[in-house]
Amino acid sequence: MQTINQKRFLHWMDEQAKIGGTDAGGLNRPALSEADLAARDWFHHLIDEHGFAYHMDGAGSQFARLPSQNPDAKTLLIGSHLDSVPDGGRFDGALGVLAAFEAAVTLKEAGVQLPFHLEVVNFTDEEGTLAGLLGSRALAGTLSREELQHPRGGRARLEAGMARLGIDDNSILDARRNPDDLLGYIEVHIEQGTRLESSKTAIGVVTSIVGIRSCWLTFTGEAAHAGTISMQGRKDAFQGAALFARQARQHVIDNFSPGVVNVGQVEMAPGAFNIVPQTARIAVEFRHGDADIFDDMEAALLEIAQESADACNLTLTIKKVDAIPPAPMTPAFVQAVEDAADTLDLSHTRLLSFAGHDAQSLAAVTNSVMYFVPSQDGISHNPHEYTAPQDCINGANVMLHSVRQMAE
Ligand SMILES: [Zn+2]
Question: pTM score, two decimals?
Fold first, then answer.
């Protein structure tokens, strides 16, 4: 059975970790920083050295192309990102790029003829130092000019990064690829959780990247003297918010598992030891992988909010903030990864991704799947992030055989 070159692959993993490497053993390689540019140069050389056609698109994403003999064939993209969060770890992203590249080199060396063009990709700014999923959304054509004016990392930082690489707003928006030319996208990533580690499972095949919705809930009662008004007579806004938080948590556990809900901020006014709060404004976020159930979940949470307000003699106002839809993975691609794991005799399970990844950008326009390998103690975005060499190797071998599955 064909397998990747373990020694070469692990050597690349070590080499990339030196670029922007920190004393704590992590990586400080935010998108389009000097360290990220050095990592891009290193990857560019690696691509040249192994005889692939190299190109960079208008969003700065890098590609190594192994063309099919059929010039009209579609393109299968495999990869991830080489950028890190500030003071992050050495596996998040880099594993996916280098596992994909190792798989491609193995196929090329073996002279395997593929019925599709294969491109290994390093997407720009997955982590959101600049805009978040910048390269993958540019390729999918889902990034807007308005957002580039107000990116989450600030316009000045984006402009500085673009200038360093020689790209601009127009080139980023021109990086869109015609979905008709794409066969799909496969990504391997560290899990960033403990589900695989605790169940001693080698591969976690993602069936959906969860959607995220958020809203502000404001409970309004009446400010009053905290000593003289009876406990029964108060319209205490915080009691409504607290009742909601407790009940929403239990309701999600009981009815919407594996969905999650979080109350991340509480603001109360007027805000003093001796005043019954008139308003309590809470930031609520919830996540689920299934679009239909997501609607039910939202309806249930808002109903609990209304009941909590009623029970405490309060009024409720709702301000929706964000709604990122779930990104279901393509069933046939999920199956291909599972077949690859079976071929390699590796245990596997299906799970949801509760974090965002480039695969969610691609899922909007083409067939997509991602899969995870274990992360020790679930630590990530942290210098102590660690995935054992054998798990990295498993990830690369599953990529190799997933591509072969797609070819059959
Ligand atoms: Zn990542």
Answer: 0.89
